[in-house]
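SEQUENCE-TO-STRUCTURE ENTRY
===========================
Question of interest: how does this chain fold, as expressed in C-alpha coordinates?
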Amino acid sequence: MSRRCPLRSSPFRRPSDSHVAPRRDGRRLILTDWGELTLIERTAAETVSTPVTREQVPWLLAERLELPGFELDAAGRVTRPQLG
Protein backbone atom coordinates (compact mmCIF):
# COMPACT_ATOMS: atom_id res chain seq x y z
CA MET A 1 0.00 0.00 0.00
CA SER A 2 1.42 3.39 -0.95
CA ARG A 3 0.91 6.56 1.05
CA ARG A 4 0.94 10.11 -0.22
CA CYS A 5 3.37 12.40 1.48
CA PRO A 6 1.59 15.53 2.80
CA LEU A 7 4.84 17.44 2.31
CA ARG A 8 5.43 16.26 -1.28
CA SER A 9 6.24 19.82 -2.43
CA SER A 10 8.84 20.32 0.29
CA PRO A 11 12.48 20.18 -0.78
CA PHE A 12 13.09 18.48 2.57
CA ARG A 13 10.86 15.46 1.90
CA ARG A 14 12.39 12.22 3.05
CA PRO A 15 11.28 8.59 2.71
CA SER A 16 10.01 8.75 6.29
CA ASP A 17 7.49 11.45 5.28
CA SER A 18 8.81 13.92 7.81
CA HIS A 19 10.49 17.29 8.01
CA VAL A 20 13.07 18.03 10.71
CA ALA A 21 13.87 21.63 11.65
CA PRO A 22 16.79 22.11 14.07
CA ARG A 23 16.45 25.31 16.12
CA ARG A 24 19.19 27.64 17.34
CA ASP A 25 18.37 26.80 20.94
CA GLY A 26 19.03 23.09 20.35
CA ARG A 27 15.41 21.96 20.00
CA ARG A 28 14.30 19.91 17.02
CA LEU A 29 10.84 20.26 15.55
CA ILE A 30 9.65 17.31 13.50
CA LEU A 31 6.46 17.19 11.46
CA THR A 32 5.72 13.61 10.53
CA ASP A 33 2.97 11.63 8.85
CA TRP A 34 4.31 8.25 9.92
CA GLY A 35 1.22 6.57 11.36
CA GLU A 36 -0.59 9.74 12.35
CA LEU A 37 0.09 13.38 11.60
CA THR A 38 2.22 14.60 14.52
CA LEU A 39 4.39 17.53 15.53
CA ILE A 40 7.30 16.33 17.69
CA GLU A 41 9.39 18.76 19.71
CA ARG A 42 12.66 17.34 21.04
CA THR A 43 15.14 18.76 23.50
CA ALA A 44 18.03 17.07 25.26
CA ALA A 45 15.73 16.49 28.24
CA GLU A 46 12.38 15.50 26.70
CA THR A 47 10.28 14.69 23.66
CA VAL A 48 6.75 16.05 23.31
CA SER A 49 4.44 14.68 20.60
CA THR A 50 1.32 16.58 19.59
CA PRO A 51 -1.23 15.17 17.13
CA VAL A 52 -2.19 17.77 14.52
CA THR A 53 -4.90 18.05 11.89
CA ARG A 54 -4.19 18.37 8.21
CA GLU A 55 -5.78 21.85 8.34
CA GLN A 56 -3.04 22.93 10.77
CA VAL A 57 -0.17 21.86 8.50
CA PRO A 58 0.18 25.04 6.36
CA TRP A 59 0.34 27.17 9.53
CA LEU A 60 2.79 24.79 11.23
CA LEU A 61 5.04 24.77 8.17
CA ALA A 62 5.05 28.57 8.00
CA GLU A 63 5.16 29.54 11.66
CA ARG A 64 6.96 26.69 13.41
CA LEU A 65 9.17 25.23 10.65
CA GLU A 66 9.82 28.47 8.71
CA LEU A 67 8.53 27.06 5.40
CA PRO A 68 5.93 29.59 4.18
CA GLY A 69 3.71 29.32 1.12
CA PHE A 70 2.00 25.96 1.63
CA GLU A 71 -1.76 25.48 1.48
CA LEU A 72 -4.32 22.70 1.24
CA ASP A 73 -5.72 21.92 -2.21
CA ALA A 74 -9.36 20.93 -2.87
CA ALA A 75 -8.54 17.29 -2.08
CA GLY A 76 -6.96 18.18 1.29
CA ARG A 77 -3.36 17.62 0.15
CA VAL A 78 -0.63 20.02 1.19
CA THR A 79 0.69 21.89 -1.83
CA ARG A 80 2.96 24.81 -2.53
CA PRO A 81 1.75 26.85 -5.49
CA GLN A 82 4.41 27.98 -7.93
CA LEU A 83 5.89 31.29 -6.93
CA GLY A 84 6.19 34.10 -9.43
The chain has a mean pLDDT of 77. The chain has one domain: 18-79. The chain has one helix and six strands. The CA atoms of residues 37 and 54 lie 7 Å apart.
